[in-house]
Amino acid sequence: MEKGALLNERYVLVKPLGSGGMAHVWLGRDELLNRTVAIKILREEYTRKPDFQERFRHEAQAIARLSHPNLVTVYDFGVDDGRYFMVMEYIEGEDLKTFLRRARPQPLETWLDIAIQVCEGLGLAHRAGLVHCDIKPQNILLAPDLLAKIADFGIARAMVAKGLVLDRTQTQPLEEDTVWGSPQYVSPEQAAGDALTPASDIYSTGVMLFEMLTGRPPFPGKDPRTLILQHQHEPAPSPRLINPDIPEELEAVVLRAMAKSPAERYRNGDQMARVLKALLADSAAPLPDASPTADFPVVAEEPGIDWKAVGLGFASLISAGGLIPLWVYVYFLYNPPGR
Is residue 333 in some structural domain? Predict the structure, then answer.
């Protein structure tokens, strides 16, 4: 495709925004509605597979029916001269991966807020029966106000349906962002080629949250196959060993999300969002102020008897009075009666 090309006599390709293993993304213009859009055009090798085409169309239609502030809105799906494309809202900003590299450090509340938004977007998709299958920072778009939006639902789901994700029969060296997704964020069951559930997205979200809190992914494998094995078999490391400022409660959330067994994770995005919201509310609570004027206001007292002074006077009198018997004894000792 070239700059200025017209799709379905409606969408003008303005300039390329990027390319991945599955599609090319263009900045486009909807001539009919006069608005800027993002257009994702599938690579030619995938458009030749009829089953893949049908699945991609079905998922695009399903996603287009979803409306949530944390999901990229799909406006249209089409085919032009054998080219399959999806038209989506254009988010002026950057992806989370870029933000992680550019804008560290950030307050804990910032990372929690982004994670909550991702979980809430996933929650709606999970309720609709959709699993993203490729949650990673590159697929989380951030507007300048840090509104987070999940992208690439349709492609990821269609790929999994066709067994194109994590092709274990592939013998050539694998690279990140190839057709099978990113090995840094893949769930153990996806790495094994097993059935995926909403808990699979939760695992990837946990990996992503680990990276947000520590500045690095949990597993340091230098090649995709090593990373896959680590996700399948190695327990998740403690985030607090890397960043001791992470609260223990938040570390527990990350480790539960990254449990090897899907049954041990949060069931869906909604459940994880509720837990993170509770933690965010706790972390945002102001620390108690120990100054008397703040928590213990001093109330002025009316003038009256100084009972403290009176009490001290009585104590002194009693102490002095206790010596009287001794004085009497000494007096009569040296001055006996009748002398």
Answer: no
